[in-house]
Amino acid sequence: MQHIGVIGAGNMGFALIRGFVSSGKSLGEHIRVFDVDQTRLSVLKNEFGVVPVTTLTDVATTDTEILIVAIKPQIMPAVLDELASHIGETKLVISIAAGISTRTMLSRLSQRARVIRVMPNAPAMVGFGAAALCKAGGADQKDMDVALDLFSAVGVAVAVDEKYMNVVTALSGSGPGYLFPIMEAFTDGAVRMGLDRVTARALTVQTFLGSAKMAETGASFSELKDRITSPGGTTIAGLQEMERAGLRGILMDVIEAATNRAQELDKD
Ligand SMILES: NC(=O)C1=CN([C@@H]2O[C@H](COP(=O)(O)OP(=O)(O)OC[C@H]3O[C@@H](n4cnc5c(N)ncnc54)[C@H](O)[C@@H]3O)[C@@H](O)[C@H]2O)C=CC1
Ligand SMILES: O=C(O)[C@@H]1CCC=N1
């Protein structure tokens, strides 16, 4: 059972805590949480029985071995500076901040700080997360295994070279933020054609779930697409519109733009 300190109890702090507790990886009473917003602490205390603490020092000096930093990239430097004096090399520091490199983290903490950079995603809260991890400074393979084990409890977790962290951020970190509007557009399209919204929504969600399950088998995306596409049928008529609009190019541009933005965040 992991004892964890969490700094930042926003969307992602909440998602991870929910995932860790519901997967049995930790107990609410073993999780200490610090957030500048008291209402967030109350929400998490009521929901999962976590232990709220009132200062950064409290969460940093507690006996928890792992400290997860789940705050916005823009305030990471200031918070790391404040943490530096408390933790040295005693704790494993896991950052989930988009764009913030381990180089920046080590320069703020200490060159031998045990640092792991993770890019998780919001579906961790329902056990279907996708996370990529890399280590730096004094973090050894044992630290990496601990982190991989933790994030595996809430989905898929893989080790990657840090040079790929920004594209992972664009793909799986931001990915849900692109998929929900696409799902909404599918539903709206069906509503436009006269289907009621409740039915349209239910069929949209199941279609995404089912398609992901089919893709999970490892078959190529184009082979899967061909299986749905009858000669002279409905799917090919829709695909022609998709290709005419350049949807694939647009989605590739989306990943490129988000990757570039992640790169910029380290300099903001
Ligand atoms: N939202 C997402 O789906 C994902 C977010 N991330 C990363 O997770 C991090 C957090 O993002 P969100 O949870 O979406 O943001 P959020 O804004 O929902 O949560 C951030 C929390 O940090 C708190 N906070 C602000 N200053 C603080 C301080 N000095 N000390 C302690 N707490 C403080 C805020 O009150 C807030 O509750 C970001 O770095 C983001 O890049 C990574 C993967 C996915
Ligand atoms: O939008 C963002 O910057 C964060 C990182 C990945 C998902 N949300």
Describe this structure in words.
The protein starts with a strand and ends with a helix. The protein is an alpha/beta fold. 54% of the residues lie in helices and 17% in strands. Residues 7-13, 34-37, 40, 70-73, 75, 79, 96-98, 119-122, 173 line the site of 1,4-dihydronicotinamide adenine dinucleotide. GO terms for molecular function: pyrroline-5-carboxylate reductase activity. Belongs to the pyrroline-5-carboxylate reductase family. It is an enzyme of class 1 (oxidoreductase).
Q: Approximately how much helix is present in the residues? A: 40-55%
Q: Give the C-alpha Rg.
A: 21 Å
Low-confidence stretches: none
| Structural class designation | alpha/beta
The CATH superfamily of the largest domain is NAD(P)-binding Rossmann-like Domain
In the CATH scheme, the class of the largest domain would be Alpha Beta
Overall number of domains: 2
Shape descriptor: elongated
Output the helix-strand order. EHEHEHEHEHEEHEHHHHHH
Number of helices, counting only DSSP H or I runs of 4 residues or more:
12
Specify the CATH architecture of the largest domain. 3-Layer(aba) Sandwich
The biggest beta sheet reads:
8 strands, mixed
Ligand inventory reads: 1,4-dihydronicotinamide adenine dinucleotide, (2S)-3,4-dihydro-2H-pyrrole-2-carboxylic acid
CATH topology of the largest domain: Rossmann fold
| Spatial sequence of strands, sheet with the most strands | 3-2-1-4-5-6-7-8
Content of β-strand: 15-25%
Number of strands: 8
Mean pLDDT: 95
Roughly how many Å apart are the termini? 37 Å
Catalytic activity: L-proline + NAD(+) = (S)-1-pyrroline-5-carboxylate + NADH + 2 H(+); L-proline + NADP(+) = (S)-1-pyrroline-5-carboxylate + NADPH + 2 H(+)
Protein name: Pyrroline-5-carboxylate reductase
Domain Pyrroline-5-carboxylate reductase dimerisation: 162-265
Pfam families: F420_oxidored, P5CR_dimer
